[in-house]
Specification:
Radius of gyration of chain A: 24 Å
Shape of chain B: elongated
CATH topology of the domain at 32-105 in chain A: Immunoglobulin-like
Order of helices and strands of chain B: HEHHH
Order of helices and strands of chain A: HEEEEEEEE
CATH superfamily of the domain at 32-105 in chain A: Carboxypeptidase-like, regulatory domain
Helix content of chain A: 10-25%
Largest sheet of chain B: none
Helix content of chain B: over 70%
Shape of chain A: rod-shaped
Strand content of chain A: 35-45%
Distance between the termini of chain B: 31 Å
Radius of gyration of chain B: 24 Å
Largest interface: A-B, 30 and 29 residues
Distance between the termini of chain A: 77 Å
Strand order of the largest sheet of chain A: 4-1-7-8
Oligomer: heterodimer
Number of strands of chain B: 1
């Protein structure tokens, strides 16, 4: 005797809902970008969004897309002109932040 | 004759209502099952959305150190173990349901079996999400097993399995007791 299904549409909808979490592209983790912080001289302390980062310059960070407030300081006070500056990072691209005694400058090629 | 006389007034005085209630229960239970399953799917979806939406700020690494490789191996071993236990739980639940569901059991027992199966399924699902997080981490060249994209699914993987075990033991104990009662009566 064939099994009679009472709610075929409801069952199909439920099946779709159950597959929703894994199937949605928006549910996969976001694409990242790179924030590269360098300085001359190297070995300076990096502060991002008010928090000190364990890695000294030069350092590369894998970050979510967004804007980051970066400052760089060193013990000798040579990099005192590199105060907080906002750097925008978009997904799939890299943003460079280079600090010298003169302040934030274009990174050397 | 006695039975005929009893049955007619019985139906007239509310017997039909009782019959309708009795036939309506499975339908209600089935709709409840659908609502519960959809609620669990939405819950899993929201949890996954929360973890994947967390901000990432990690140092890039070019290669893993020996210690990091060992940490990763331990994590993957744990992930595999929990997934195996989750699938075993589903198998054991199916076996008990198939072999012991001929007799009538209480509704609370059936709900504990459903809850156990649901949490075992959730556990396997979060295990999959955690392993996706590991692939995401390696692809993006960072190493942090406590990154939200890995830590939350991994934690959910474990605790969903724990809940599944709890409900499974409840179901197994009740089911076995019912079986023993039935065999003692026969």
């Amino acid at each position: 005797m064939p099994v009679r299904r009472r709610y075929p549409i409801l069952e199909a909808a439920l099946f779709g809902v159950l597959l929703l979490p894994a199937g949605l592209p928006s549910q996969t983790p976001q694409k990242t970008g790179k924030l590269i912080v360098t300085s001359t001289p190297q070995g300076a302390t990096i502060v991002v969004n008010g928090k000190k980062v364990p890695q000294p310059t030069d350092a590369t960070f894998v970050v979510s897309a967004g804007t980051y407030r970066v400052s760089v300081t060193d013990a000798d006070g040579n990099l005192k002109n590199c105060g907080t500056k906002a750097f925008s990072v978009s997904s799939g691209s890299q943003t460079r932040a280079h600090c010298t005694a003169a302040g934030w400058t274009a990174p050397p090629k | 004759m006695y039975h005929e006389k009893r049955s007619v007034p019985d139906i007239e005085s509310g017997g039909i209502n009782k019959m309708m209630q009795a036939t309506g229960r499975p339908r209600l239970g089935r709709i409840g099952y659908y609502i519960g399953a959809a609620a669990i799917a939405v819950l899993a979806w929201q949890a996954q959305r929360y973890t994947s939406g967390q901000q990432i700020f990690e140092s890039q690494v070019d290669s893993l150190t020996q210690l990091q490789e060992q940490q990763l191996q331990a994590f993957l071993d744990m992930n595999r173990l929990l997934t195996t236990l989750g699938t075993t739980m589903l198998g054991a639940l199916g076996f008990l349901l198939a072999s012991g569901s001929k007799g009538k059991s209480g509704s609370s027992v059936r709900w504990s079996a459903l809850a156990s199966g649901a949490f075992a399924g959730l556990s396997v699902f979060f295990g999959y999400i955690a392993s996706e997080g590991i692939i995401y981490m390696l692809r993006n060249q960072f190493f942090d097993l406590e990154a939200p994209v890995i830590l939350w699914p991994h934690t959910a993987h474990f605790y969903a399995l724990l809940l599944s075990v709890f409900f499974f033991s409840d179901f197994a104990i009740h089911d076995l007791n019912n079986k023993e009662d039935r065999s003692a009566r026969s």
